[in-house]
Amino acid sequence: MAIDWKGVMPAVTTKFTKDDTLDLKMFEININAQLKAGVHGIILGGTLGEASTLTDDEKRTLVKTTVDIVKDKVPVIINIAEQTTKGAIEAAKKAKEDGASGLMMLPPMRYKAGDRETVMYFKEVAKSTDLPIMVYNNPVDYKIEVSLDMFEELLVLDNIQAVKESTRDISNITRIKNRFGDRLKILSGVDTLALESLLMGADGWVAGLVDAFPEETVAIYELQKAGRIKEAIAIYRWFLPLLELDINPKLVQNIKLAEVATGIGTEYVRPPRLPLVGDERKKVLEIIETGLKTRPQLPKYKNIELVD
Q: How many domains does the chain have?
């Protein structure tokens, strides 16, 4: 399935049972809520998906299950976060076999690769597959930045097509557009900078709080796209305290609590992560409860026409 690299693409959480096995029933409930809201793709196995704790078999099960659920309505993308080039190539091969439409790729894990090594890593994986690739550029959390000069080298490969822009530097969107035009699609990877990024020319939003609030997230995207900026800003201002739960070391626990509150998830996480307790839990719940009490009434945001 072709990927346009635009719109809202949830970085979905992985659902677990209390016995620490995959909860595919609740996972399906959440995926269907995303589809009903009008998302444009599903991303599996990212930070929110607790990728570092998943076995290869579990990742493959998630891809196959999601492909079966979405039935070609939207593309299914799996994140690759490997320590070796060989491991990343094997992960890409499995993704293709399991029906994934594309890949999101982090630089090498653990080892802080230099620029030349990072470029070679992405190139070797890209040459090994025909799946389209979105580079996940998050130097804040993963300590390696993919610079514009590095993208210049990477873009000689046709299947490197997009970047999940998580540098936290809004002006980087303009730099990318000025240098590469539409050759490199841009998806904002930071919830608290998403609307600003879209207004500066980003093509989409890899979202986190969408896992609990899919309709509000898609509404913001569709309204700004249609030129109804004031309406998008109003929803975004309501959303911001919730979106800030995504820029926190406990983002997985935070967002899973929000999913519980909206009825489309559980709070089970895989150790060493543990559910929130005490004052930390109380504070997060207060933010969620306030958001629910003041939840805005959404306009009919699907299939809206561009404002002249």
A: 1
